[in-house]
Design brief:
InterPro entries: Ester_Hydrolysis_Enzymes, SGNH_hydro, SGNH_hydro_sf. By secondary structure, this protein is α/β, with parallel strands linked by helices. Helix content is 49%, strand content 11%. A five-stranded parallel beta sheet has the order 2-1-3-4-5, sandwiched between helices.
């Protein structure tokens, strides 16, 4: 049984987590994987009285999470912290020349984890970023994103966090249907893509097999 009664599950990240949430409504989960996972877990564990919080913000990089971590994580006192960040750390390099090296990304990510562990007794879930070759130029992102994916995997191993291995899962899914079916721009998931993330997230935390 992965969850305890009254657990608070926080989803943190960028636009993929944000997914249209209403910033004026603290309980809004958006319309993506956070809503799908929260709905499924609420159905599965009604006796646990679980609370789900979404604080994803579109466009965020790891450094942006650092700046708002006290307000949007630690002060909320979550018992589960799910972090899904990284693709914008690559995207900004290609669309505006703002480079985030793998070392800088790791330093920011490690800071988030360390501050969380120092302040909270929370379980960690790390979601690796992915990119699909839609349009074709997304293939060029690999040289920048792949090292960041490996950072997330290594941090999950080091800190004993649950890992959601999305990059491989989306690559495998793209054998069944073309990449654009899962993410029209290679980054932002379709409804089916969000369902893939929600299912992978629940498997990673042990809620489903």
């Amino acid at each position: 049984m992965p969850f305890q009664k009254n657990d608070i599950i926080l989803f943190q990240g960028d636009s993929i987590t944000d997914c249209g949430r209403n910033y004026a409504d603290a309980s809004s989960l958006g319309v993506g994987y956070a809503l799908m996972a929260g709905a499924r877990l609420g159905l599965q564990y009604p006796e646990k009285n679980l609370t789900f919080i979404n604080r994803g913000i579109s466009g965020n990089r790891a450094v942006d999470l650092q700046e708002r971590w006290d307000r949007d994580c630690l002060e909320l006192k979550p018992t589960w912290v799910s972090i899904y960040i990284g693709v914008n750390d690559t995207w900004r390099w290609f669309d505006s020349g703002q480079e985030t090296t793998a070392a800088e990304f790791e330093a920011s990510y490690r800071d988030l984890i360390e501050r969380t562990k120092q302040s909270l007794d929370a379980k960690l879930v790390l979601v690796e970023p992915f990119v699909l070759p839609v349009p074709e130029d997304r293939k060029g992102w690999r040289k920048d994103l792949d090292p960041k994916i490996h950072v997330v995997r290594e941090l999950a191993r080091e800190y004993g966090a649950a890992l959601v291995p999305l990059d491989g899962l989306f690559a495998a899914a793209s054998v069944k249907a073309e990449p654009a079916f899962w993410a029209g721009d290679g980054v932002h998931p379709s409804p089916a893509g969000h369902a893939l993330i929600a299912e992978a997230w629940m498997k990673a935390v042990g809620a489903i097999s």
